[in-house]
Amino acid sequence: MNIKISEYNLPIEKSGPYGITVGPDGAIWFTENAGNRIGRITTSGEFVEYPLPTKNAKPHAITSGKDGDLWFTEWGSNKIGRITPYGEITEYQIPTPVSEPHGLVLEPYGAIWFSEESDKIGQLVY
Fold this sequence. Notes:
By secondary structure, the protein is mainly beta. The chain is 0% helix and 46% strand. The protein has strands at residues 17-22, 28-32, 37-41, 47-51, 59-64, 70-74, 79-83, 89-93, 101-106, 112-116, 120-124. The radius of gyration is 14 Å and the shape is globular. It comes from Anaeromonas frigoriresistens. This is Virginiamycin B lyase. Pfam families: Vgb_lyase.
């Protein structure tokens, strides 16, 4: 088996890439925990970055939704975020204060499930 590994430097140094997923547009989308941004890279290596509206949101996990948008956790701001393939961002507050959401996943019927450090599992239905 012949394996090739390629690496791409992010535009912002020490941005702390964390979560990663394939978006509905075929590009790779990722969170920048320390950079407070959502990033997008094409298979040819072209980057676009989208700053989050909330300061110190610390985006963590990211997944594609049934609606063609991407959903992500904001560990530092206690929110779930949604970003369109065009970079429009909406944020949703989690009811439990300081829940520190981490991982998330899309269920087959479209709801977003996420884990919280507050010893809870959350569900966002849209």
